[in-house]
Design a protein that fits this description.
The chain is of the alpha+beta class and 137 residues long. It has one domain: Sufe protein. Chain: A, CATH 3.90.1010. The protein is built from six helices and three strands. It has a three-stranded antiparallel β-sheet. Helix 1 packs across helix 2.
Length: 137
């Protein structure tokens, strides 16, 4: 399947070359999520100004997929409004938990392939779960 091949390439690229910084000295929100299932951990720092995400710092200790998921998060939500991120998280849940097909922006389309592997959802959602703890939804 061409789509799966492309999705795999995207995930491998994000895992090998993560697009996030591990520190954000000036931030307004912070949280850590530790997966009891996998042992992976993500710490996220976010700078929100007037409802706009202006900066994200991530520290990920986990699998290649956990790092790829964090890189995808960073790449897609920087300069999003908090309400847009809330909708995006809802759409990700609809894809993975309910097998629905809402549109996902940019490289997040890979989650349509990840949905077939429920044992990997925990890794793919690690940074998103930290984000959900950090932001005031």
């Amino acid at each position: 399947m061409i789509e799966d091949s492309l999705h795999r390439e995207i995930l491998e690229d994000h895992a090998r070359n993560p697009r996030f910084d591990d520190d954000l000295p000036v931030h307004t929100h912070q949280a850590e999520f530790h997966s009891l299932k996998t042992g992976n951990t993500c710490t996220i720092r976010i700078n929100v100004q007037d409802g706009l995400i202006e900066g994200i710092g991530l520290e990920v200790q986990g699998s290649a997929l956990a790092n790829a998921g964090a890189s995808l998060l960073f790449s897609e939500i920087i300069e999003f409004r908090v309400d847009q991120v809330k909708d995006l998280i809802s759409n990700l849940g609809r894809v993975l938990e309910f097998d629905e097909s809402p549109d996902l922006p940019g490289d997040l389309v890979v989650y349509h392939s990840i949905k077939r592997f429920p044992e990997r959802h925990d890794c793919a959602l690690l940074a998103w779960r930290a984000l959900t703890k950090a932001l005031p939804f």
